Description:
Elements (H helix, E strand, L loop, with lengths): L7 H14 L2 H20 L6 E5 L5 H10 L1 E2 L2 E2 L1 E6 L2 H9 L7 E5 L12 E7 L8 H11 E11 L24 H10 L3 E8 L17 H10 L1 E7 L14
Parallel strand pairs: 1-4, 1-6, 4-5, 6-7
Antiparallel strand pairs: 2-3, 7-9, 8-9
Helix pairs in contact: 1-4
The chain binds S-adenosylmethionine.
Amino acid sequence: MPDQPLTPDEKLQQEFNRWAEAGEGDKMQQHHLDITEKTIRRMDLRPGERVLDLGCGSGWATRLLARLVGEGPEGFGQVVGLDISDEMVRLARATSKDFDNILYVWGSAQQIPWEENFFDKVLSVESFYYYPDQERALAELFRVLAPRGRLFILINLYKDNPYSLQWVDKLKVPVHVRSAAEYVELFQRHAFENVEAVQIPDDTPTPDDYVTKSFHSLEDLRAFKRAGALLLMASKPDVRNAAPGYTIY
Ligand SMILES: C[S@@+](CC[C@H](N)C(=O)[O-])C[C@H]1O[C@@H](n2cnc3c(N)ncnc32)[C@H](O)[C@@H]1O
């Protein structure tokens, strides 16, 4: 019997397992740390909060979040790191053994294996444009967020930063390339409120001897960093999703 073709999620799993095996998990920390720290400052995290790190990769950002929500007067906060790549999840678990408030889960953004109305905040770093069905992922994020929960989606690939388009052809999986305005419209269509898009420059210096395979030149890489990543922020309205099998009258 011929092999079944891979589903889009299986293709992502295979590709990012390859990244994990090639040591890209840790390298991404160097590339994404500056813009992620700036995003985390905007998240205004409090001890006791429940946070989802969607597309957590090797878990370095998950650990930053876990430190901020740990123990406090408001209780004991928890962070769930979710990723489609089981190799990334394995890596993240192996490097987070000292944390008792992190749980790493293997799964897809399009079918988040978690209950309704649970997370106070969601962070997702450099992952959202890979999701084959972004509409489905947004519906899932809406479902698992608590009433008035906040979403923080950070992406480096979007139309308004033309330098980012230089590396699309180098990717081995399909991606979405939308503008900030198109993303805002998409989030609003999914009933999110207070939808905002801001550009977050990457202020890390690029040394003159840095070798880039992704950009045409170091000047283009520097211009890409100056324009920065796109941070999409939104809130779930003050409503609760029904649990499966229940109807809210
Ligand atoms: C470029 S990496 C970024 C990883 C991490 N957030 C970081 O900044 O180091 C993208 C991550 O998104 C994950 N991913 C891609 N598609 C996904 C999906 N449909 N559901 C969940 N995770 C996904 C990949 O496995 C990968 O770990």
